[in-house]
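hey can u run this one w/ cytidine-5'-monophosphate bound, need the C-alpha cells asap thx
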Amino acid sequence: MSFDLSVIPNKNIVLAVTGGIAAYKSAILVRRLKDAGFNVRVVMTQGAQAFITPLTFQALSGNPVHTELLNPEAEAGMGHIELARWADLLLVAPASCNTLAKFAVGLADDLLSTLYLATKSPVWVAPAMNQQMWAAKATQRNLNTLVEDGVHVIMPDAGSQACGDVGLGRMPEPEDLARQVTQYFHKAQRAIAEKFGMLAGKHVVITAGPTREAIDPVRYISNHSTGKMGFSLAAACYAAGAKVTLIAGPVSLDTPNGVRRINVSSAVQMLDISMKMLDEGCDIFIATAAVADYRVAEVAEHKIKKAGDELNVSLIKNPDIVATIAQQQKRPFMVGFAAETRNLEEYAAGKLVAKKLDMIACNDVSRPDIGFASDENAMIVFFAEQYQMQKRDLEKASKQEIAQQLVEAIHDALHHEIEPV
Ligand code: C5P
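ok here u go:
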C-alpha cells in the first residue's frame, strides 16, 4: 500500500501536440498524466495530425480533441477561450521549432498559437527536433524570448534521433515529463498547505507499526500491527502543511511523500527517538504504534538451543512511550489510540486520563471489518475534559479518510479555548 500523495486531484492539463516524430510519445504521456490524476484535454496542430490521429488522443484522454480554431462545432463544445481558462497548465510536447517561433513573435493563426496568447496558466514547452534545428540561431533566439516571457522550457535529451543524427533534440520520456509536471503541482500544493493548511507551521511526530522485542539474535516477540493508520496520518498531517516525522517500527509500507521517517525496532529505541524529537521541538505527538507491553529481561547473546520440553523466558515491562512524553515539562499536544474489544468508551476515557492525553481515538478491534490489517477503520474520539469538546464518532471509512478527520479533530482542539484547570 502506498501513501504517496502523487495523485493530484482536479488539475487540468491542456497537452498540445505539434508536428514531430516525438508525437507518438505524447500518447503515452496522456496515459501517465491520467494515472497521476490529472484531467487532460489534447490540442493538436495540423502538423501533429500527420504523425498521429486525434482519435488516439481522444480515446486516451477521454475527451474530444481540439484541432480547429474556427470550427463552429468545436467552439460550441469548449471554445478556445474556455479551453484557455480551463487549463491549469499548457504543456506543449513535443514543441516544434515552428510553434516556438510562433509563440516568440505572438502569431495567432491557429488554435494552439491563439490558446498560448489567451491563457493565464503557466506554459511549458518540451522542444523536440533535429539537433541542427535545435542549435540554429533562430531557434535559440526564440527560446530565449520565451524564457523571458515566462515560459518554462524542458530541455531536450541528447542521443540518437529518428533522422539518424546524434545530438540534442529528443523529447524526454513521457514518464519523466509526467513526473516533472506532478512535482510542480506538488510543490505548489505544498506551498499553499504550509501557509494555510490546518497544521501549518507544526511539527508532528507519529509513532507507527509494531515493535520487535528480541529474544535472541534470531527470534523476537511482536504483533500484527501493519502501521497503516500511522502512515495514513503522516500523509494527512503533511497534506495539512505540517512537518512530519514518522517513527516506524518494522513495517512494509512506503514512506509517505514529504515525510521524514526514522526506523526503529524495539520499544526502548522508539522511546529514545521520541525523546530526541522533543528536543528538536515537537508540537503534536501522535502515538499509533502498537508497542509491545513487555520485553525479554535478558536477551540471549547466542541463538537459544532446543533443550527440554519447556522454555521459560522472563519478561519485564516496557516503558509507556506516550505517557512518558506526556509527563515532560514542555509537552506537545498528545494524541493516543486505544484498540479495545469491549467497554470501548469506558476504557478509552480511562486511558485518556491515566496517560494525561489531550485526545484519544479508539476503535473496536473485535469487529472483523475494521482495525489492524484492514484498509478501513471507524473510531470514537474523546478530548480531555479541559477542552469541553463533545466526543466525535468517525464512521467506517478508509484509513485515509479517518486520518483526515483526525487531523480536523486535532486542529479543532488546538484552536479551542481551554478551560483553566
Ligand atoms: O495501554 P494501551 O497500550 O492500550 O495504550 C495505547 C496507546 O498508548 C497507544 O496510543 C499506544 O501507541 C500508546 N502506547 C505507548 N507505549 C506503550 C504502550 C502504548 O506509547 N508502551
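Residues 207, 267, 287-289, 291, 318, 320-322, 336-338, 351 surround cytidine-5'-monophosphate (CB under 6 Å). anyway lmk if its weird
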